[in-house]
Design a protein that fits this description.
Elements lengths: L16 E3 L6 E7 L3 E5 L2 H5 L7 E6 L19 H15 E11 L2 E2 L6 E2 L1 H11 L4 E9 L8 H6 L8 E8 L17 H9 L4 E2 L5 E2 L15 E3 L8 H9 L11 H10 L5 E4 L6 H9 L2 E6 L2 H7 L8 H4 L41
Parallel strand pairs: 3-14, 4-5, 4-13, 8-12, 13-14
Antiparallel strand pairs: 1-2, 2-3, 5-9, 6-7, 8-9, 10-11
Helix pairs in contact: 2-3, 7-8
Length: 361
């Protein structure tokens, strides 16, 4: 997107406004760096001007199909598929044949019932069956710091467990997207380190798997599972301090930087183009700046673009200096085995109505 010159002769990317092809509106380059830009406008309009098969990775978290309306705009779950269809077509057109589409999307509960809505699973099926995407792998982002919600079903009626994961769909226009898991390896577990130190006798396990002597080779790190543990506990970040100092409203639904970084590392190379069509606070762009990827963050609300400037008005490399120390036990999240507290004792009988009657406090 070309820059224009202001009356003072200085380049002013915010004056670069182009007519939209998809929605009849306009969009503008709100902020630019050497690697990318924040674009204010509707992503359908912006993507309509992209050359076909020009994007390496779409990394995004669209508005969820929630029951309650949010400030950033979201469609109800039962309307979600129709709303998403034009985006799906646009994503398929601009992605390279060996590129990837990564969608972080949370589930929803049916209004007034302790049952789950299936909209995000229906979205996955639609993307594959109607738009020709291939599901490369499904991931699950576990937030260890998640509060026990929804409170009505979890802490009041005690008939459900807390909802602490988002699904992350990794899709591609063909079955062979570019990828390398060596870029997202994790430290060995204590038990694996012990096995490597003491040695391992190759044998067939009770499950029937034949473990060869290659299992005891020290490769330096472990291949991660498709469960990603990242607490979403941002409370005093530079972004939030910037918003407070400027009197700006921060985006209320930010994913932690480690989530897009995981996929940007695994699915793109330096100088590849990464696009986030639902950019929000533009954390995807901040990660791309640090990892030397070209990027475009598209956000439809000006207030969120204004707040996102806080991610780029400092040395991006500073955040890299505080990378997680893998020797610190506090950076590991443990999941207790289900039976730790199980006892052979009599408990209250299950409610015959499944918890439909609200208990008295």
């Amino acid at each position: 997107m070309a820059e224009t010159e202001s009356k003072t002769g200085e380049k002013s990317p915010r004056e670069d406004r182009r007519p939209a092809h998809a929605s009849g509106g306009f969009y503008e380059s709100f902020h630019q760096t050497d690697l990318g830009q924040i674009i204010l406008g509707d992503s359908l309009s912006v993507l309509a001007d992209y050359t076909s098969h020009s994007v390496d990775l779409i990394m995004t978290s669209p508005p969820f199909g929630l029951v309650r309306k949010k400030d950033y705009g979201n469609v109800e779950a039962n309307e979600y598929l129709e709303w998403f269809k034009p985006f799906a077509a646009a994503f398929k057109r601009v992605l390279k044949k060996n590129g990837s589409l990564v969608i972080d999307i949370g589930g929803a509960w049916n209004k007034g019932y302790p049952t789950r809505n299936l909209y995000h699973f229906k979205l996955l099926v639609m993307l594959c069956e109607e738009f020709g995407f291939h599901l490369a792998q499904d991931f699950y982002w576990w937030n260890p710091s998640k509060l026990p919600t929804p409170a009505e079903w979890v802490t009041v009626r005690r008939i459900r467990t807390k909802d602490a994961i988002n699904t992350v769909w990794w899709l591609s226009p063909n079955p062979w997207p570019r990828a390398c898991n060596r870029r997202v390896l994790q430290p060995y577990s204590p038990s694996m380190k012990d096995l490597l130190e003491k040695g391992y006798k190759a044998k067939k396990r009770p499950s029937g798997h034949d473990i060869s002597d290659k299992f005891s080779i020290n490769n330096g790190a472990a291949i991660p599972p498709n469960l990603i543990a990242i607490p979403n506990t941002e409370s005093n970040s530079y972004y939030l301090r910037y918003c407070e100092e400027k009197g700006l409203k921060p985006h209320p639904a930010r994913y932690p930087a480690e989530l897009p970084e995981y996929f940007i590392r695994m699915l793109s190379d330096s100088n590849d183009l990464v696009v986030d069509p639902f950019a929000g606070s533009c954390v995807t762009g901040e990660v791309c700046e640090r990892l030397n990827r070209k990027w475009a963050c598209i956000e439809i609300l000006r207030d969120y673009c204004e707040a996102a400037l806080g991610r780029f008005e400092r040395d991006i490399g500073e955040s890299a200096k505080s990378r997680i120390n893998h020797d610190n036990p506090a950076n590991y999240y443990r999941v207790p085995r289900p039976g730790i507290l199980w006892k052979n004792e009599t408990v209250d009988p299950l409610p015959e109505d499944g918890g439909k009657t609200r208990p008295n406090r």
